[in-house]
Amino acid sequence: MLSVTDGDHLREILLDRPAKRNALTRDGLDRLRECVESAAQPVVYVHGAGDAFSAGADLDTVQRLDGESGQAFARRGQRTMNAIADADSVVVAGVDGPARGGGVELALACDVRVCTPRASFAETGVTLGLFGAWGGTRRLRQAVGSTHAADLSLSGRAVDADEAREMGLVSRVVDDPRRVAEEIAANDPDALRELTPLLRVDGDRETTDDREAAAFGRLLDE
């Protein structure tokens, strides 16, 4: 489901489930967290295999959830995304192809988000009677502002690479996102380690995470 390639200054994590558009199961979330937390390199680069970045939560998993297990699944996703947001390394998301639901949340948890012209982004949870509960409601507002966040979350519409850049969802549209990760990794590792925490803004994480998990569980109990 995941593969890891280590260099001196860069750890590359590949979401390697192309037949499922790199959807994340419980085990996939845990493995992703472990791969990020254990990185000794100053930069971690996350991208997807095949023609998608990530479809987000595995729908086969979600369809078996009830209220209690739904809250637990939301908490599991939050732990992984929070670990990425708190990582000792700079985490770079390279989005090539669609990012949907939890895939958008994964990108949002990263310090730097870049994409190719083939990328698109959508918070599709509302079309399934759910929403992104891995910290996405908070991080999306922080990234693009409340107006764009409400539009994306409540409509479920997809935005292309250019619109994503215009609203601040990504910083650059490039042909090879890995080169951005390499560019960052070429800098002084001590400077990266000191600077990165200062650039992270997280707001009231605990309160928002509690509300997300509870609401996600209620939707699955109905």
From TrEMBL:
<dbReference type="InterPro" id="IPR001753">
    <property type="entry name" value="Enoyl-CoA_hydra/iso"/>
</dbReference>
<dbReference type="InterPro" id="IPR018376">
    <property type="entry name" value="Enoyl-CoA_hyd/isom_CS"/>
</dbReference>
<dbReference type="GO" id="GO:0003824">
    <property type="term" value="F:catalytic activity"/>
</dbReference>
<comment type="similarity">
    <text>Belongs to the enoyl-CoA hydratase/isomerase family.</text>
</comment>
<protein>
    <submittedName>
        <fullName>Enoyl-CoA hydratase/carnithine racemase</fullName>
    </submittedName>
</protein>
<dbReference type="GO" id="GO:0006635">
    <property type="term" value="P:fatty acid beta-oxidation"/>
</dbReference>
<dbReference type="InterPro" id="IPR029045">
    <property type="entry name" value="ClpP/crotonase-like_dom_sf"/>
</dbReference>
<dbReference type="Pfam" id="PF00378">
    <property type="entry name" value="ECH_1"/>
</dbReference>
